[in-house]
Design goal:
With 133 residues, this protein is an alpha/beta fold. Helices cover 56% and strands 14% of the residues. It contains seven helices and five strands. Strand 4, helix 7 (117-125) and strand 5 form a beta-alpha-beta unit. The two termini are 19 Å apart.
Length: 133
């Protein structure tokens, strides 16, 4: 089984938030974790926004190490075309459509981990199994 981890879930690994324990528990249930290259941008932005030094530097270093263990989905022409189709179909936000398209590229049986309610609704509309919310 493959689990796609979106930014809202992965961020909970570095910033104590509501549902952080649930996110960590869900991520630990799957041997293969995948995410989009978009997650790198979103996570680093949010770490910089939410944390002060020295927590920011430590979290960023840990994130960099952790990201090496993920199967990363490229934001290429195929992903963008699928994201555009998903955005038209569900009217979800552009970044959400990229995450969903990335998860679908990992396979139709991919479990989608998110704590973003709107994104979860759009992911379910595409047939993905969603956990988190």
């Amino acid at each position: 089984m493959v689990m796609y981890v979106d930014t809202s879930a992965l961020l909970k690994r570095y910033v104590q938030e509501h549902d952080s324990e649930a996110a960590l528990s869900l991520m630990s249930t799957d041997a293969v974790l995948t995410t989009s290259r978009l997650t790198e941008v979103e996570t680093r932005r949010n770490l910089a926004r939410l944390l002060k030094e020295p927590e920011f530097t430590m979290a960023k270093q840990q994130f960099t190490v952790d990201l090496d263990g993920f199967a990363l989905i490229a934001i290429d022409e195929t992903t963008c075309n699928e994201a555009a189709r998903i955005a038209e179909q569900t009217l979800c936000r552009s970044a959400d459509a990229i995450h969903i398209a990335s998860a679908l590229r990992a396979g139709r049986n991919t479990t989608f981990l998110t704590f973003d309610i709107k994104q979860a609704q759009a992911a379910r509309a595409t047939g993905l199994h969603v956990v988190g919310v």
